[in-house]
Amino acid sequence: MFTRVVEVNTQSGKASELTSIINDKVLPILKKQVGFVDETVLVSDTEPDRVLALSFWNTKEDADQYNREQYPAVHDMVRHLLETEPAIRTF
Fold this sequence. Notes:
By secondary structure, this protein is an alpha+beta fold. It contains three helices and four strands. The radius of gyration is 12 Å and the shape is globular. The model has no long low-confidence stretch (mean pLDDT 97).
């Protein structure tokens, strides 16, 4: 199992809109990717504009392929809601 953790700070009050876009538009893209297992989106209860998106993959190679081929378009979908660029970590 391989995990990508994408941490973002949204513009004030935009976390709910971001999670809706992830669930409605990004998740269907993820489900089509080879090796995709699941996605969990978390909004901080102490910092309401901080969002974590954890995607679970069968292999690092599967996640890397998504990162190269699909992530740039996904990032473009949500960029207008972000205060800062996403921090991406892998586990």
